[in-house]
Amino acid sequence: MLQEQELLDCYQALERPLYNVLYRMLWHAQDCQDLVQEAFLKVWQQRKQVDAATLHAYVYTTALNLARNKIRWRLNWVFDSVEPWLESWFSAEQMGRSELAKDSPEYVLQMQQQQQVLRKALASLASVEREVLLLTEYSELTLAETAQVLSIAPGTVASRRARALKQLKAKLEQQTGRAWTDED
């Protein structure tokens, strides 16, 4: 049986990385905060069935399932084919690495535009590939941990990750008109 302190330690370790993964799935801060809380609440409610050795994977699996349900709900109840902020992107020069002051309106706008491009590119990936990429890149889970969370083989995680990265680079090149170099 899971002890309260084990869950608290897990919460402290996973709250931020889990939020980051959910944010890149949902792109809505409040929904992500709610789902992180709901995931931990569900785990606590099921504490008699949860083994401390697999706690992290169980929390991630619970949160991902909640996020998938939220996405399904959005698709069924919200008619929003392409969000307007995904439509606007100017040029590769405007996305360039300029030396703007970090608190200037131009810098903030540039960062928002770059985030929009990334959102669109991530959204275009197949959900199984996007999930693997988010877990390995933004949560910094190992391939084995990601495999455990998603209940798939580590080799499948590696191939999906490689395919997702290749497709993501192609989408970003297509959207920005900027070719990737070894420094990227």
Automatic annotation (TrEMBL):
Ranges where the RNA polymerase sigma factor 70 region 4 type domain occurs: 116-168
GO process terms (BP): DNA-templated transcription initiation
Name of one Pfam family that matches: Sigma70_r4_2
Residues annotated as domain RNA polymerase sigma-70 region: 11-72
Cross-referenced SUPFAM superfamilies: Sigma2 domain of RNA polymerase sigma factors (SSF88946), Sigma3 and sigma4 domains of RNA polymerase sigma factors (SSF88659)
Coiled coil: none
Entry keyword Nucleotide-binding: no
Top-level taxon of the source organism: Bacteria
UniProtKB keywords: DNA-binding, Sigma factor, Transcription, Transcription regulation
Entry's Gene Ontology molecular function annotations: DNA binding; sigma factor activity
Cited Gene3D superfamilies: 1.10.1740.10, Winged helix-like DNA-binding domain superfamily/Winged helix DNA-binding domain
Family: Belongs to the sigma-70 factor family. ECF subfamily.
Protein name: RNA polymerase sigma factor
